[in-house]
Amino acid sequence: MKSKQAGITLIGFLIVLAVVGFFGYMAMKLVPAYTEFMGVSKAMTQVSTEGVDGKSLDEIRRDLMFKMGFQYVDDATIQPQDITIDRTNGPQLHVAYDKQVPFIYNIDFLLHFQKSVPLQGNVSLN
Questions:
Q1: Per the domain annotation, does 17 fall within a domain?
Q2: Handedness of CA 53, 55, 75, 90 (dihedral sign)
Q3: Is the residue at 3 inside a domain?
Q4: 8 A C-beta contact, residue 40 and residue 113
Q5: DSSP state, residue 90
Q6: What are the transmembrane regions (predicted)?
Q7: What is the pLDDT of residues 45-103, one digit of tens each?
Q8: Would you say residue 11 lies in a domain?
Q9: Residue 46 belongs to some domain of the structure
Q10: Rounded to the nearest 5°, which phi and psi values hold at 120?
Q11: Which residues have a Cβ under 8 Å from the Cβ of 86 and sit 6 or more positions away?
């Protein structure tokens, strides 16, 4: 009885391996940026739950930058001007920044992150 072979050829396997390798390399480059954003989110939540009664924007920025240091957020990632307070729907701490991740040769990923958390307490106008 003749058996019918089933499976993938060597060339098919190499193509599948190349595709999986490409997406694996892409994930290896992008995952650290997203874990860094999770650290930023956690630091923002910590600042908002502590309360900001009477603190100025500069003091809130300083507290946030200090807490982001414990979350392994790179100092060059977020600049002080990326941290603002939005007062339209009550005081909200807002962080928006871009991160450029080099990929292959002259191809880069440009990731835009933004998050807002409500602040507890009254923010000083200074």
A1: no
A2: positive
A3: no
A4: yes
A5: B
A6: 6-28
A7: 999 888 778 888 888 888 999 999 888 888 888 888 999 988 888 888 999 999 999 99
A8: no
A9: yes
A10: -100, 125
A11: 92, 94, 116
According to DSSP, the residues that pair with 99 across neighbouring strands are 111
Whether residue 97 contacts residue 79, with contact meaning beta carbons closer than 8 Å, is answered with yes
Query: What is the residue range of 67's domain?
Result: 32-118
Residue indicated by tokens 């729907």:
89
| pLDDT at position 116 over 60 | yes
Taking Cα atoms as reference points, which of 68, 88, 87 lies closest to residue 77?
Answer: 68
Cα–Cα distance measured from residue 40 to residue 65, given in angstroms and rounded to the nearest whole number: 9
pTM reported for the whole predicted model: 0.81
- Please write the tens of the pLDDT for every residue from 1-30: 677 877 888 999 999 999 999 999 999 999
Domain count, the chain: 1
Both structure tokens of 106: 């002259």
